[in-house]
Specification:
This protein is α/β, with parallel strands linked by helices. The chain is built from 14 helices and 18 strands. The strands form 3 sheets. Strands 7, 8, 9, 10, 11, 12, 14, 15, 16 and 18 form a 10-stranded mixed β-sheet that branches. Bound molecules: NADP nicotinamide-adenine-dinucleotide phosphate. NADP nicotinamide-adenine-dinucleotide phosphate (NAP) binds next to helix 1.
Length: 428
């Protein structure tokens, strides 16, 4: 027998507004004959236009009262933030045994285990497909599609704002600051861009994906996070001369014992699919022991794609399939411990600025040898007007500690005018 699901939506911004419009256009979207009806909404400003007809939909002054309303069967949180009203309202709905759908990666990365345990205690379900990669079904792929495999590693581009900025820096040969200012004008970047350009948004997402991939609970504290603020145009140009493109890569490798989870700028070969994913696109590689390498790419943000992901979660709630939130019971989940950083062995891109003096190249080679690092490729650019010479080299694979040592030794050479810039070459 078909039934009607009464839906409450908290947050009517980009995602919430998109979802409300979608629900009104396609109330019968879920397979199986059940329908959905938007019965309640909440946001900060009641008078803001939402691009949807909200007459007949009850306005709630607080997300908590919407979450707790007996009129609401399914609570949808699209406010955002790891703490505050979003966390309180999701907790309240789960305590009442109500299914919850959220797009809030910060919340899931910070409190995923606690919320999963609560959902299991009360028999509620918690869904967050839209939290990672927007319209691209990365969560379902890892939790459901790959349940029969053992994931070895995941790596991808998970923040559209950073990808847009890096793409535009290369395309228009402009600085980070200039492109960021344009992205803010166009609405691609927030007024306070730290969450995006500092790598934290990508870190929230990779932490959630790592939990699903390796059978643990999200452990944001164990993630290493570096943003794109220090990427200079000269690095982008020199990387390209050597056949690479700089991307903000979020990656995790490991097993149920733990994972190394990191977000940092990295060089990707120009012909690699991750290098081809330009603009605001998101992309992800997954390597499984049995299925081998999988690649998905698409719109990681925006009203349409993200509302479609929320709708897919609503359809799951309606279908009634019961799956543990992170693929296995919360009682078995432990925050994934961090695997040792000095085990990482990668090639590195080192960019130096030196004075045009004889013997400098020999001194650099000596410094690298002292650190036990050898050179794979080397490029010296013409002397600049300042009299300085840009030199760039790609090392053979070495531990991060060895690369750090090499940077320190090179920085102490008198003709080297600034500490070398080191960027890892992605292992993809
Ligand atoms: N934007 C995307 O493409 C995207 C993609 C994937 C995931 N997400 C996630 O989706 C969530 C929402 O993102 P968004 O981009 O839609 O954000 P947004 O455009 O800033 O919208 C946030 C909404 O929450 C409401 N709100 C804020 N504080 C509130 C409070 N204290 N009480 C009630 N309502 C409150 C706002 O009300 P007013 O409108 O009245 O100010 C607004 O409607 C976040 O968790 C985000 O990380 C977003």
């Amino acid at each position: 027998m078909s039934r009607e699901w009464r839906i409450g939506v908290a947050g009517l911004g980009v995602v919430g507004g998109g979802l409300v419009r979608f629900l009104q256009e396609r109330p019968g979207f879920a397979p199986g004959g059940d329908t959905v009806r938007l019965v309640g909404v909440t946001a900060r400003d009641r008078d803001k236009p939402r691009g949807a007809d909200l007459s007949g939909v009850e306005w709630f002054d607080h997300p908590l009262s919407l979450a707790a309303s007996p009129e609401v069967d399914l609570f949808i949180e699209l406010i955002g933030g790891a703490e505050g009203v979003a966390r309180a309202a999701v907790t309240a709905a789960l305590k009442l045994g109500k299914p919850v759908v959220t797009a809030n990666k910060a919340l899931i990365a910070a409190h995923g285990l606690e919320l999963a345990a609560l959902a299991e205690r009360t028999g509620a379900s918690l869904h967050f497909e839209a939290a990672v990669m927007g319209g691209v079904p990365a969560v379902k792929m890892l939790r459901e599609g790959l349940v029969g495999d053992d994931v070895i590693s995941i790596a991808g581009i998970l923040n559209g704002t950073c990808n847009f900025i890096l793409t535009e820096m290369e395309r228009t040969e402009r600085s980070f600051a200039a492109v960021l200012a344009e992205a803010q004008r166009l609405g691609y970047a927030e007024a306070d861009p730290t969450t995006d350009v500092g790598g934290f948004d990508a870190a929230h997402k990779i932490v959630v994906l790592a939990a699903l991939a390796f059978g643990g609970a999200p452990n944001f504290a164990a993630a290493e996070v570096e943003g794109i603020q220090a990427v200079e145009l000269i690095d982008i140009r020199l990387a390209r001369d050597l056949g690479y493109r700089i991307k903000l890569i979020a990656e995790a490798a490991g097993s149920a014992r733990g994972a190394s989870v990191r977000v940092a700028p990295a060089l990707v070969p120009l012909n690699h699919p991750l290098a081809q994913a330009g603009g605001a696109l998101n992309a992800l590689f997954v390597e499984g022991q049995r299925v081998g390498r999988l690649y998905i790419q698409g719109a990681g943000a925006g009203a349409g794609p993200t509302a479609a992901a929320v709708a897919a979660d609503i359809a799951d709630v309606i279908a009634g399939g019961r799956r543990p939130v992170f693929g296995r019971p919360a009682t078995e989940l432990k925050p994934l411990p961090s695997l040792e950083r000095d085990r990482q062995i990668d090639k590195a891109f080192l960019r130096l600025m030196v004075r045009d003096e004889p013997g400098t190249i020999a001194a650099i080679s000596e410094a690298l040898a002292k650190a036990g690092v050898s050179i794979d490729s080397f490029l010296q650019r013409p002397v600049e007007d300042s009299g300085h010479v840009p030199i760039v080299l790609i090392t053979h694979p070495a531990t991060e500690m060895a690369i750090d040592d090499a940077v320190t030794h090179i920085a102490s050479i008198p003709a080297v005018i600034e500490r070398p810039r080191s960027i890892r070459v992605a292992r993809t």
